[in-house]
Amino acid sequence: MGYNLSIQRENKDKISKQEWKSYINSDSEFTAKDEYSGNLPDGKIVTIPTPNAGIWEFNNREVPFTFSEEYGWISVKNPENWIIKKMISIANELDAVVLGEEGEKYDEEYLNKENKLTSNLGDKKWWEFWK
Prior knowledge:
Blueprint: E1 4-8, H1 17-26, E2 30-39, E3 45-58, E4 61-68, E5 73-77, H2 81-93, E6 97-100, E7 105-106, H3 108-121
């Protein structure tokens, strides 16, 4: 289980596969990835097809972005705020927006609220907000 955010157009126009591939090719932090492999505990390797996906490499981490040709949107599962920031940047390039599964919009205003909340905590952990 998880929560997906998607880069999509509000006007019902789909992002095309060509637009997505062009974006991947224009961003030096992205690599096209048509399959993803990982090691299992028993030493076997599992490979999963990921057609039209892109991997964003940032701060020694790999973040998979998947593209749905059917819906014309780009998705990331369970993104943290630093990933949402990148998604907003991509959305701006593609004349699109970032939306949650329930239709809520993630934009610069969202990031500003999150930053303000975090900065108000100072050195406290988020669960120590009352101290």
